[in-house]
Design brief:
The protein contains 10 helices and 12 strands. The protein has helices spanning 2-27, 89-116, 126-129, 141-145, 164-172, 236-260, 271-283, 286-304, 312-325, 331-361, and strands at 32-48, 51-66, 121-124, 133-136, 152-156, 159-160, 178-185, 188-195, 197-202, 208-213, 216-218, 225-228.
């Protein structure tokens, strides 16, 4: 069932993104040759109005093939008016950004639905969910091991730690165990051995359970979320816009942290993580699943708007250069830059899949 929930989530996000490109191309008078969910060989499809609609074998993406969107494509004189590359720059920019815009619009619609149902949307505060130590308790296992306020915990027994929640879950499940704790202290990377204290606590259901504790407190505010609520239906659109903005800002902050090294590249999740998390969200209820879909949708929008060749943002960058120069970059330069962009994406995907596999091996 987990695979079904993941397939629905990815299918919706891919369809919405590609439909944005498709719709704007149609509105702006560009002929669309193919609309595909997935890449590779065609599995099923039909043709209508000069456009072939397909489902392809590889489900991790999709594409809209427009007339004249490839360099050096031979066109008949009567076709040029309907070709992508024959359109003015502003039309091509609108078509390029339409995909990410539709993902943003989907995020807005989802969070508006959740808010209209009377439920809050919680947007994480990146600085407050980071596994950064704010204080070390006197006489605690953490103090004895040499952990200090300001340390960022990066791993437990070799398994990457992304958030404070990951840290609590991992340590709680290991009462009395000796843990190898990876730490980032300024520019230094350390590994410290900490004996987790076994503590008996009462659950919300009244059961006594034994959990592991290090004796540390999280840095940041007591509540590591922006809690967004709508007091009434009239306030839903504004609050949904605020939630969408904050979700996008969270993604941008996370990307910035990866670039600066504040977050390890080991924290990147790939398709296996999406499958697992979509299953977890679905098991918690329809609204949890919808919020997770909104979060992945805004991720897709922001990532696609990055000025990396081969992404939508890369196309916008090429078009901006064309507008400034009065002519496009040469075909050779564009092809070489797209190869660089493809290399970056493939490398990041390889890291993400590797991280997914390591989490599976480590039980994460």
């Amino acid at each position: 069932m987990i695979l079904v929930w993941a397939a629905i989530l990815l299918g919706v996000l891919i369809f919405v993104h590609e439909f944005g490109h498709f719709l704007f191309a149609k509105i702006l008078g560009v002929k669309v040759l193919k609309f595909s969910l997935g890449f590779g060989p065609k599995v099923a499809g039909f043709k209508k109005g000069g456009t072939e609609y397909m489902i392809s074998a590889l489900p991790l993406g999709g594409y809209v093939k427009m007339l004249g969107d490839e360099q050096g494509e031979e066109l008949a004189p009567e076709e040029k008016a309907f070709a992508f590359n024959s359109q003015p720059v502003w039309k091509r920019v609108l078509i390029a950004v339409a995909g990410p815009f539709f993902n943003i619009l989907l995020t807005f619609c989802i969070v508006a639905t959740v808010l209209a149902a009377g439920l809050p949307v919680n947007v994480p505060k990146l600085s407050d969910i980071t596994p950064k130590i704010g204080a070390v308790m006197k006489g605690s296992p953490a103090e004895k091991a040499g952990l200090e306020a300001g340390d960022i915990i990066t791993s437990i027994n070799g398994k990457p730690v992304t958030t404070w929640i990951d840290l609590v879950e991992d340590v709680s499940s290991r009462p009395g165990q000796r843990l190898k704790v990876g730490v980032k202290r300024g520019a230094r990377a350390l590994t410290l051995t900490v004996q987790a204290e076994a503590v008996s606590v009462k659950t919300l259901g009244g059961r006594q359970v034994v959990i592991g504790r290090l004796g540390i407190e999280r840095a940041g505010d007591a509540i590591p979320f922006h809690i967004i609520k709508a007091n009434n239906l009239l306030g839903v659109p504004f609050k949904a816009a605020v939630a969408t903005w904050r979700l996008g800002a969270f993604v941008m902050d996370a990307i910035k942290s990866l670039i600066t090294g504040a977050f390890s590249i080991k924290t990147i999740g790939g398709p296996i993580s999406i499958v697992q998390e979509s299953g977890k969200a679905a098991s918690m209820g329809v609204f949890s699943y919808l919020v997770f879909m909104a979060f992945i949708s805004i991720n897709l929008a922001v990532l696609n708007l990055l000025p990396v060749p081969i992404l939508d943002g890369g196309h916008v960058l090429f078009l901006a250069i064309e507008a400034a120069r009065g002519k496009p970059l040469s075909e050779t330069v564009q092809v070489n830059l797209q190869r660089v962009g493809l290399f970056i994406l493939v490398t990041l995907m390889a890291f993400a899949i590797r991280n997914d596999i390591m989490r599976l091996i480590g039980g994460g």
